[in-house]
Design a protein that fits this description.
The chain is of the alpha+beta class. The protein is built from 5 helices and 18 strands. It has one domain. It is globular and about 60 Å long. The chain starts with 5 loop residues before the first helix and ends with a strand. The structure holds zinc ion (ZN) (2 copies). One zinc ion binds at residues 6, 212, 215, 235, 237, 243, 245.
Length: 328
C-alpha cells in the first residue's frame, strides 16, 4: 500500500511538524534549566546516554503538548542529523564485480537483508521480476545517482524515467552536511489506551540521527530503483538528510549492566528503544504489538525489530511529542 516515496513522506512529515508548531501543538519557548546527567526522572531517558557530537545543544526541558492533547514537559533534543562516531556509506557498489565491502545493504520487509554487491545487482530480476538492468552491459558499471540533480530526480515519488534502473544514493553535501531536527520527547511518557500507528519519524538514536518510518520499498522497487542503505541501515534522503530505517548494531551504544539488550535511542513517546537481542543473543519473545514490554530497571520499553523487517517498533505505546527542523 505504500505509494509515497521516502522524499514525499519526509516532506509531509516536516510540513506536519511545522503546522503543529505553528498551531501551538508543539512548542513553547519558556526557558528552563538544563538537565543534569544524573537528574532523576520517571522515564529511562538520560542526557548522558547520547554520545559526544550527537546533539547540537545541551538537552533542556520545555512545555509541550503531546499527540493526544496532554500538556506536559518535554526534553528538547536537537540532533546533529549525522552519526557522531563514523562516516556514512558505502551505499551503491561501483560495478557488477564489486564485493560486499563496496556497497551497503538492502531490505524489502520480507525478513531478508541483502548485501548490495555485484551479484545482487546482477540478480535483481530473479528477486523482483523482469525489467531490471541496473548496470551498463558494456562496462559492468552500476548506474548510480552521483549528482544532486540525479539524487533528487530519482528519490521523488514520480521517479524521473531517466533514473529508473538506478541505484540511488545521495551525498550529505547536498543537505549541508546533515539536517538537524528538534525532537520534543515527553519527560514522563503517557501511555495510550490504544497504541498509535507510526506516521512520523519513530525517534532518535544515541548517535544523533532520526529513526525513520518504514522505507517505502514497494514504491522504490516499482520504479526499478534501489534506495541503498549503508551497513548501518541508514541512507541520505534529499530533504531529511541521513536517517535510519533499520537497527543493525551501529547505534546500540549503551550496554546494560544486567545483560539486557543495549539501548539504541528513544522513541517520540519517551520510551527507550533497545536492540532486538540481549547480551547472550536471546530475543525477548513476550513483546506486545508495539514490540514493547516492561521490567523493573527500564520501565516500559521497546525492542527493535530485525533489519529485514524494515521497521523498528510496531506502534507507539504512548502519546508522541513532536518534531521540527531546527532553525539556524
Ligand atoms: Zn529513507
Ligand atoms: Zn527489554
Amino acid at each position: 500500500m505504500l505509494k509515497l516515496s521516502d522524499l514525499t513522506q519526509c516532506v509531509l512529515f516536516s510540513s506536519l511538524a511545522f503546522i503543529l508548531s505553528a498551531c501551538g501543538g508543539g512548542t513553547t519557548d519558556d526557558t528552563s534549566a538544563l538537565i543534569s546527567p544524573t537528574a532523576s526522572t520517571d522515564s529511562y531517558f538520560n542526557a548522558e546516554f547520547f554520545i559526544d557530537g550527537a546533539l547540537l545543544e545541551d538537552i533542556s526541558t520545555q512545555t509541550c503538548t503531546l499527540s493526544s492533547g496532554t500538556v506536559t514537559t518535554c526534553y528538547k533534543v536537537v540532533i546533529a542529523g549525522k552519526p557522531a562516531n563514523r562516516d556514512i556509506g558505502p551505499f551503491c557498489p561501483p560495478s557488477i564485480t564489486s564485493d560486499a565491502t563496496e556497497g551497503g545493504i538492502w531490505f524489502d520487509g520480507s525478513g531478508e537483508v541483502y548485501d548490495i554487491d555485484g551479484d545482487f545487482i546482477l540478480n535483481l530480476d530473479t528477486l523482483y521480476g523482469s525489467g531490471w538492468q541496473l548496470y551498463d552491459v558494456a562496462t559492468g558499471l552500476v548506474n548510480v545517482t552521483n549528482t544532486q540533480a540525479a539524487c533528487e530526480a530519482a528519490a521523488r515519488p514520480n521517479v524521473d524515467p531517466a533514473y529508473q534502473n538506478y541505484c540511488v544514493q545521495c551525498s550529505l553535501d547536498y543537505v549541508g552536511g546533515g539536517v538537524s531536527q528538534t525532537f520534543l520527547i515527553p519527560t514522563s511518557p503517557v501511555a495510550l489506551t490504544n497504541p498509535a500507528n507510526i506516521n512520523s519519524d519513530v525517534g532518535v538514536t544515541l548517535d544523533g540521527v532520526a529513526l525513520a518510518p518504514a522505507a517505502p520499498v514497494n514504491a522504490i522497487l516499482g520504479n526499478y530503483t534501489i534506495a541503498a542503505f549503508d551497513d548501518c541501515g541508514g541512507h541520505v534522503n534529499p530533504f531529511e538528510g541521513y536517517h535510519y530505517h533499520a537497527s543493525t548494531g551501529c547505534t546500540e551504544l549503551n550496554s546494560q549492566a544486567d545483560g539486557h539488550a543495549s539501548l539504541l535511542g528513544f522513541a517520540l513517546d519517551g520510551y527507550g528503544i533497545f536492540a532486538m537481542l540481549d547480551a547472550s543473543g536471546y530475543e525477548e519473545t513476550a513483546l506486545d504489538e508495539c514490540r514493547g514490554h516492561s521490567d523493573e530497571t527500564r520501565g516500559y520499553h521497546y525492542h527493535s525489530a530485525s533489519a529485514g523487517e524494515n521497521m523498528f517498533i510496531g506502534c507507539f505505546h504512548g502519546e508522541q511529542g513532536s518534531i521540527s527542523e531546527t532553525q539556524g
